[in-house]
Amino acid sequence: MRYINFCTDLCIPSVKKKLYQNSKPWVNEHVSKLLHDKLAATRNGDTKTARYLQRSISKELIKSKKQYTQNIEEQLSKNPARAWRDVKKMGGLTTDPPTTTPIPLFSADQLNTFFSRFEKDSNEPHKLASNNKADENQIKPLIADFQVPTVQKLLKNINGRKGAGPDKIIPRVIKICSSQLAPIITRVFNTSIEQTTTPNLWKCAIIKPLPKVQSPSQPKDYRPIAITSVLGKILEKLIKWYVCQHTELDPLQFAYRSGRSTQDAVLQLITTVTTCIDAKASNLSRCLFLDFSSAFNTINVSLLIDKLQHLDSRVTKWVSSFLSNRIQYTQVDGKLSEKLVTNTGTPQGTVLSPLLFSIYTDSIRSEKQNVTILKYADDTVIIGNIAADADFVNYLDEISRISLLCKSSDLLLNPTKTNEMLFTTQRNPPDFEQLSLDGTVITPSTSVKYLGVTMDNKLRFETHIADKISSAKQRLYLVKQFKFLGASNQFLNQIFSSFVESCFFYCLLVIFTNLYDRDIKSIRKVYKTASSYGLENCIVKDIINSYISHIQKDEHHPFHTFLTKLRSGRLQSYKHRAAIGSDSFIRHFINVVNNSSKR
Question: Cβ contacts of residue 574 below 8 Å, gap of 6+?
Fold first, then answer.
């Protein structure tokens, strides 16, 4: 690592560049000179010259922006990441660096101490559980030695724009010199696994506090993001592949899994609630949306290691070493805090932490009838199908069991941010018994936001659609701007698809059948405006059918639990009782699949 830094300092010149708030990449030297001349004329009181220069500036800006647009189109095939970054600059979708740095409310040492508040008093590294005879006789999958081509491919795919970690190794150097460094780094990775130890520099993290709210006033308003070594992240990625290959997670955990997304989690929630309130025996579904406090930082590493005993012992010991005696600094306003050593939790921002959290909470599964537990990372929902008093008892028992399980696992539930929603088709529902979590009464909400989708207790999405349509209309200005600058129709279609359609396409596929006619008209109005710019209209039904085909091919998708296959190969039709069932995604899914089987 020292040699890499030595070569970097020797061969790569360092340049200091001063950034201004109004520095735009399309402002060339000629435009800059005109701006200075106009400023001088204004200061001297020469209004006639200032107006003339302003007209010249406007003409030159249009020319320079057109040239800049042509450069973006040329870069799109060579360097897509830079091209889309430039598009965001043109549309004002990125924030410019501030000219002044705000005064921090808390010092680096104060935040560092707060982020380490869950550390045990003993501050000792955990001990591995001794293997019993059953574990000794168990055949565990061995991790294979890492190969140079695999490591070289990962090194080549590094994002060179990322900053260096605590080891001061610049990612761009690793990316450019991947073929020369791959054999050496591969040997280091294999040695680290063989010796079951993590280099100290790879366990060191610089914490960057990112505000959770617009105006943070307390230390809890900051999210601790760990900046770690780029080489350490590559090894984490290799270990993650092995752990994922040999670990069977809860099928209702949708986070950090191939072929799963937040859209699948929202689909599962909506379909579960729809089938509950549309059933003959019930018209009520109660959903408890749990909120964890500092979920990653409260993980008990000893308990986590016990859940990894099915893996190669070298990997288990390496993870234990990776999470033991971690050195942590916090950086605020360019100043570093004093170091703290921690043995609790997993650092946010690393590759392995999300997967380790999923394994740690894998035991949070439903054990009661008519109760379903959905998870997306730490976003957990307990769904109860209340058809009788016994179902409500099961719902309460399951909540109590999960609460006790979280306490035994050192996970902290936040009752003040935990919401409950009562979904029902009744116009005047009776009063229902309120829940209490850790002594705090949970008042039922009339609307809730789950994974970015806002829904009400009638399973309608007017607020969600209104917000997305508003964002899409604002971003249509970007298409209009590039149209004026002479961009090609192909480029305009790409901009429209990436920045406008993406606004309301998020989870639109699973809530499209639940939309009112006025919502569909609002979406069509956006496409009508886009068509006036010469853009192609997207067929929403084709995209929905494509998503249906994706679920149909994935035999392990949890949505298949709602389907019943007949002897003829067709799916059993969904018999709805209320209007919400007739408009549901599951009914549309079954109709599309059965109609396609006729052809």
Answer: 581, 584, 586, 587, 590
Of 246, 238, 49, which is closest to residue 155 (Cα–Cα)? 238
Under DSSP, the state recorded for 60 is: H
Sign (positive or negative) of CA dihedral 506, 377, 399, 291: negative
Q: What is the DSSP string of 406-473?
A: HHHTTPEE-GGG-EEEEEE--SSPPP-PPEEETTEEEPEESEEEETTEEEETTS--HHHHHHHHHHHH
What is the structure's pLDDT at 153? 93
The radius of gyration of the chain from alpha carbons, rounded to an integer in Å, stands at 28
Q: According to the model, what pLDDT value does residue 98 have?
A: 44
Could you tell me what percentage of the chain is helix, strand and coil, using 3-state DSSP and rounding each to the nearest 5?
50, 15, 35
Cβ-contact 139, 231 below 8 angstroms: no
Angle subtended at Cα 495 by Cα 492 and Cα 500, rounded to the nearest 5 degrees: 120
In 472-537, which ranges are E strands?
none
Q: How far apart are CA 364 and CA 397, in angstroms?
A: 13
What pLDDT shows up at residue 78? Answer: 75
Q: Which residues of 490-522 are buried (b: 16+ CB within 10 A; e: fewer)?
A: ebbbbbbeebbbebbbbbbbbbbbbbeeebeeb
Beta strand 419-424 with 371-376: parallel, antiparallel or unpaired?
unpaired
Q: Which residues of the chain have pLDDT under 50?
A: 96-101, 122-123, 129-134, 136-137
Instruction: Give CA–CA dist 504/540, Å, rounded.
Output: 11
Distance between CA atoms of residues 179 and 171, nearest Å: 14
Alpha-carbon span 549 to 504, nearest angstrom: 21
Element (H, E) at 111: helix 108-115
Q: Give which of 107, 266, 293 is closest to 212, Cα–Cα.
A: 293
Would you state the torsion angle of the CA atoms of residues 585, 587, 592, 593, taken in this order, to the nearest 10 degrees?
Answer: 110
> Exposure pattern of 435-467 as b/e (b: 16+ CB <10 Å)?
bebeeeebebeebbebbebbbbbbbbbbebbee
The backbone torsions φ and ψ at residue 327, rounded to the nearest 5 degrees and listed phi first, read -95, 130
By C-alpha distance, which of 119, 106, 126, 127 is closest to 297?
A: 119
Given a contact cutoff of 8 angstroms between Cβ atoms, the answer to whether 298 and 411 are in contact is yes
Instruction: Quick: pLDDT tens for 469-483.
Output: 888 888 888 888 888
pLDDT tens figures, 481-526: 888 888 888 888 888 888 887 777 777 766 766 666 777 777 778 7
C-alpha–C-alpha distance, residues 133 and 4, integer Å = 46
